[in-house]
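TA notes, week 10

Several of you asked for a full example with nothing omitted. So below is the full record: structure tokens for the whole chain, then the designed sequence directly under it. When grading your own attempts, check the secondary structure regions first.
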């Protein structure tokens, strides 16, 4: 089990290898990437910032909850900070579990709770040269209770 907020590019293959075990029948990886359009606006990049100590602490708490709730300690999460271009990974979640349903459920739990609870903010950069902070509550509203 590990959670980190990092300033460097993310390596999904390395995180997947970190959770690998012959005890597990399922290993999955979720990679969140910078997309080219958000809410109808053409995006050229994103900058993520955070209150790093609090973000790391909350991310670790989420992973600890997932370990307890889904019965596997084979969960690794990294969220990147700084500027990223289109297609670059901003978050990677690797989960391994003896069973696929629990692996998927644990991964979904981690990403939804991360979006809801971790103090990481993003500022989108648009192809027209403007930038805007994205309201974190908008993503939360889409998820529902």
């Amino acid at each position: 089990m590990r959670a980190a907020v990092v300033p460097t590019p993310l390596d999904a293959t390395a995180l997947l290898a970190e959770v690998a075990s012959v005890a597990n029948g399922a290993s999955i990886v979720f990679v969140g990437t910078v997309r080219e359009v958000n809410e109808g606006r053409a995006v050229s990049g994103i900058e993520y910032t955070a209150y790093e100590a609090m973000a790391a602490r909350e991310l670790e708490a989420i992973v600890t909850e997932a370990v307890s709730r889904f019965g596997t300690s084979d969960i690794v999460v990294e969220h990147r900070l700084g500027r990223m271009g289109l297609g670059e990974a901003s978050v990677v979640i690797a989960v391994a579990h003896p069973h696929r349903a629990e692996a998927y459920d644990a991964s979904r739990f981690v990403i939804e709770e991360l979006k809801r609870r971790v103090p990481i903010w993003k500022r989108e950069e648009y192809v027209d040269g403007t930038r805007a902070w994205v309201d974190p509550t908008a993503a939360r509203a889409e998820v529902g209770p």
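Residues 29 and 129 are 33 Å apart (CA to CA). Use that as a sanity check on your answer.
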